[in-house]
């Protein structure tokens, strides 16, 4: 009787909290790029979403920032972080994207090409915008030519 009552009053399991994004040190050959944005609440390749991104030098710290989703694996996605710091212009591994609706001040943005983030699909805070196809294709061409993406 005690076992039955205790099983009836057990606390339900807590909902799974999303794991923090992980930096993937080297792109695996054959990672596939895709472009299929749909502003439907899920992070889709071609969208710029907002999520927490760990600092490279101290992964226990980070900040909420825009990330371009470039691929998917299951519910999780691959993303590349954006920055609005104009000193990125001309830096190796950074590419100018220009302004977009993901930034409410419409500041120009740069995307970091060499730091791929593996992001839990449940860890996306919000969808920010769809990156237009021509700019996505420029990012994809650079990832294929210099970083081994398929």
Describe this structure in words.
β2 (47-54) and β3 form a beta hairpin. The termini are far apart. The chain contains 2 helices and 7 strands, in the order αβββββββα. It has one domain (20-147): SH3 type barrels (Roll). The longest helix has 15 residues, at 133-147. Strands 1, 2, 3, 4, 5, 6 and 7 form a 7-stranded antiparallel β-sheet that branches. Residues 1-16 have low confidence and may be disordered. The chain has 150 residues and is of the alpha+beta class. 15% of the residues lie in helices and 36% in strands.
Main sheet attributes: strand count, strand direction, barrel closure: 7 strands, antiparallel
Mean pLDDT: 81
Helix/strand order, N-terminal first: HEEEEEEEH
Label the structural class. alpha+beta
Number of domains: 1
Question: What general form does the structure show?
Answer: globular
| Low-pLDDT residue intervals, each spanning 5 or more residues | 1-16
| Cα-based radius of gyration, to the nearest Å | 18 Å
- Classify the fold: give the CATH topology: SH3 type barrels
């Amino acid at each position: 009787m005690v076992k039955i009552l205790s099983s009836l009053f057990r606390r339900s399991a807590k909902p799974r909290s999303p794991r923090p994004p992980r930096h993937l040190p080297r792109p695996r050959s054959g990672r596939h790029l895709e472009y299929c944005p749909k502003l439907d609440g899920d992070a889709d390749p071609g969208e710029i979403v907002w999520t927490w991104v760990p600092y490279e030098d101290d992964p226990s710290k980070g900040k909420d920032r825009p990330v371009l989703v470039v691929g998917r694996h299951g519910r999780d996605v691959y993303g590349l972080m954006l920055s609005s710091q104009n000193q990125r212009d001309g830096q190796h591994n950074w590419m100018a994207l220009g302004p977009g609706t993901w930034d409410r001040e419409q500041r120009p943005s740069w995307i970091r090409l060499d730091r791929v983030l593996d992001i839990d699909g449940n860890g996306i805070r919000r969808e920010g915008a769809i990156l237009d196809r021509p700019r996505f294709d420029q990012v994809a061409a650079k990832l294929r030519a210099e970083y081994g993406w398929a």
